[in-house]
């Protein structure tokens, strides 16, 4: 009986931050912007900006770490859900309330084989190679727009660690990415591998904190006010349009 009481009490304590917050906050492992240890975000520039916004808004929320495709689907379908760092693309414009730009990322082609990058820079089509991308990500969409076809010359994986692992073991020959903090990736062999990047930036993308459009208007107003306060204090969060 005593154990049962402590168990219920412990579950109640775990539930308290989410209930007090009123929002579900989702992200993925994406170093250096979100650095995850033991399934929790512990560092990263985007994480720190979002934490500052939530604190300023008086919302004691915890970030959940999920595979990106799952995070995106939940944020797209469930009211009172926040997601970061989400690429702001024309096809997504109406799907979210775009609260604050967090990062501008330069996306280049990367490979574990310098010859692949050299050949692309000399004019060979990237479509001649096998690419890898996190399923449902901006990189996935961008590669498909370039002509890559899933299950033909595009491999889908669940997260950024698997993305770089596929390059390291040469199951894929290239990916589209910003340069991560390789030291924060999970696999030791991946951290020890030298990856090569194209000189040309393929895309410049702004990554955002965004909300489901049916999120509680009171909570949205708290978040917008917090974003404005961060900007007025000179902190690295820009105010987006309402």
From TrEMBL:
Q: Where is the signal peptide?
A: 1-20
Q: Does the record's keyword annotation contain Signal?
A: yes
Q: Which UniProt keywords apply?
A: Signal
For whether the record's keyword set contains Signal, the answer is: yes
Its taxonomic placement starts with: Bacteria, Pseudomonadati, Pseudomonadota, Gammaproteobacteria, Chromatiales
The organism encoding this protein is Rheinheimera riviphila
Q: What is this protein called?
A: Transporter substrate-binding domain-containing protein
